[in-house]
Amino acid sequence: MISLPGFGLSLIFTIAMCVHVVRTNRPLYWVWIMVITQGLGALVYFLAIVLPELLGGKTARTLGSAARETLDPARDYRRAKGDYDDAPTVANAMRLAAAAAGMGRHAEAEALYAQSAQGVYADDPTLLLGRANALIELDRASEALPLLLRLERMPEGRAPQAALAQGRAYEALGQMTQAETAYDDAAGRLPGMEAVARYAAFLARSGRKAEAEAQLAEIDRRIKRADPYFRKEARAWRELAARAIG
Q1: Where are the domains of the chain?
Q2: Rounded to whole angstroms, what are the CA distances from 217 to 91, 105, 116, 143, 244?
Q3: What is the CATH number of domain 73-156?
Q4: pLDDT computed for residue 87 by the predictor
Q5: Which residues have a Cβ under 8 Å from the Cβ of 71 and sit 6 or more positions away?
Q6: 123: pLDDT confidence band, cut at 50, 70 and 90?
Q7: What per-residue confidence (pLDDT) applies to 241?
């Protein structure tokens, strides 16, 4: 139970943050968030808006971004959607597609990438890879692989992100030798945990548990060295690999 002095301090802090919203012409929805969530909303506003203003450093901006994402995970999507509705350019379509994919709206992302990849943008590497990844998520690997093979003929097609997508597509189509080559390539070059985790899961699904466990151990070593801000995402990828290993 919150003590009376604690409640009073929380109320004062919330009022101060509401005043900051009004005086700095911030969107008034922040006030409603703080009223509804009481002290939590005010704390998130402080971390997301006030602290970066006070410190101005990279760490403060990172904390602010994380706080905004926690309170309003659809924020980037709404902004991208608004920009696209105002000006349906290819650049805005790409931003909206990426935001949609980040929210798991892969059908929307695929449609945006497909309609943008026309004319002079037909062979745009970002559009090809984005659409291929969306198709893979939609269990349409047979449509994704031709896009990835087109991309392979370009310099950008040798990027580790493209190799990871190829690994996933080949595996979904039962072409296991090609899948392993692509996964191994991506795991060795792509920063972060996703490629290693997906490679470990592939090895586990292929009945190669000892090799999969070795990759899982590598993930654990990387997590220990990772910045604390990235550990939550890293652990999510670790769980993907661990579930496949069993």
Answers
A1: 4-71, 73-156, 195-246
A2: 40, 32, 41, 34, 14
A3: 1.25.40.10
A4: 93
A5: 33, 41, 44, 48
A6: very high
A7: 95
